[in-house]
């Protein structure tokens, strides 16, 4: 049996298939991710070992020869820089109540503060990011969480993702995986790729009601992340197909997803791809390579995936079409944080 490495944290991946089944396209839940338009590689099922899932993998996951997978872990880092103008955060109501919380801001942020208190979503986002990073002021993760929550409640996916991350890590508030799943889920449903991945990681790494990880849900979200170009989701999905966890064991599918991750520079994925390829018949290997070559990433919605940066020019808050840096200095658990 293949001894595959730990799962990486990101999104998508369900489906079961016997030898020679192309990777099924992810359920249309949301479209986040990194790369351009794409369709998941179709792979003919073969029989490898993948990293956990719970659907059909319940029985298979219990096999002593198949150890539980370990996922890489949440995605705090933003993917590739956005090339398109990020979506403008929505206006926020009830910000007047934050006057006390924002009372200690430096004088040079007075205009930004006033815009935020007036409900300008862009200003609220910028202050939340500054509080989370400690950029130009004393870092306050509790306050950043409160600000992100105002935007998250208004439906802003980047803020839902950030809030989910703080709940997952217990940064600035009590760690609560149920809340992390809630907010990652809301962002993922809108097409936020990193949220898809992180949501899948939570499903794969934490026991569900039955006492075992929900690999089926993990695979489903890993697949969506994978189809949208999230490299670690592609790797994890390859593991799940190799192990038959949450999806039917399918080495052709596994090869295809490892190949997709390897094409993005993941050396470990390249090794796993070759390990799986060595188990395939010449016909299945040729099919797997063809599928890997044909794979194209699904297009992401920049308004959902790219967070804006603001600048104060001539007293006005203006939108800049560039993503903000990672607001948390989180150390990812596992080999690949996102």
TrEMBL record:
Q: Where is the composition biased (Basic and acidic residues)?
A: 48-58
Q: Where is this region: Disordered?
A: 1-97
Q: Which InterPro entries does this UniProt record tie to the protein?
A: ISR_Activator, Sel1-like, TPR-like_helical_dom_sf
- SUPFAM superfamilies reported for this sequence: HCP-like (SSF81901)
**Protein's name according to its UniProt entry:** Localization factor PodJL
- The record lists the organism as Methylobacterium symbioticum
Which gene codes for it?
Answer: podJ
């Amino acid at each position: 049996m293949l001894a595959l490495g730990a799962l990486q944290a990101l999104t998508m991946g369900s489906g079961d298939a016997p030898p020679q089944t192309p990777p099924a396209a992810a359920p249309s839940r949301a479209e986040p991710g990194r790369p351009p338009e794409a369709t998941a590689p179709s792979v003919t099922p073969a029989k490898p070992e993948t990293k956990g899932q719970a659907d059909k993998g319940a029985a298979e996951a219990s096999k002593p020869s198949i150890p539980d997978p370990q996922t890489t872990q949440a995605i705090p880092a933003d993917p590739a820089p956005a090339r398109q103008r990020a979506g403008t955060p929505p206006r926020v109501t009830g910000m007047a109540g934050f006057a006390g919380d924002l009372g200690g801001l430096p004088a040079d942020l007075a205009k930004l503060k006033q815009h935020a208190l007036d409900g300008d979503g862009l200003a609220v986002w910028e202050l939340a990011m500054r509080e989370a990073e400690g950029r130009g002021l004393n870092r306050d993760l509790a306050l950043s969480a409160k600000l992100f929550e105002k935007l998250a409640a208004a439906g802003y996916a980047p803020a839902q993702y950030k809030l989910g991350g703080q709940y997952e890590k217990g940064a600035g508030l009590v760690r609560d995986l149920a809340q992390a799943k809630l907010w990652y889920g809301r962002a993922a449903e809108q097409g936020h790729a990193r949220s898809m991945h992180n949501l899948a990681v939570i499903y794969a790494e934490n026991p569900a009601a039955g006492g075992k990880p929900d690999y089926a849900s993990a695979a489903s979200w890993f697949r969506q992340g994978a189809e949208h170009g999230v490299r670690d989701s592609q790797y994890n999905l390859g593991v799940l197909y190799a192990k038959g966890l949450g999806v039917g064991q399918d080495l052709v599918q596994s090869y295809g997803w490892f190949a997709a991750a390897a094409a993005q520079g993941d050396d470990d994925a390249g090794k796993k791809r070759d390990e799986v390829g060595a188990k395939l018949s010449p016909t299945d290997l040729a099919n797997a390579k063809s599928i890997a070559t044909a794979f194209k990433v699904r297009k992401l919605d920049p308004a959902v995936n790219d967070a804006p940066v603001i600048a104060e020019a001539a007293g006005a808050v203006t939108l800049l079409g560039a993503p903000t840096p990672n607001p948390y200095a989180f150390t990812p658990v596992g080999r690949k944080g996102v």
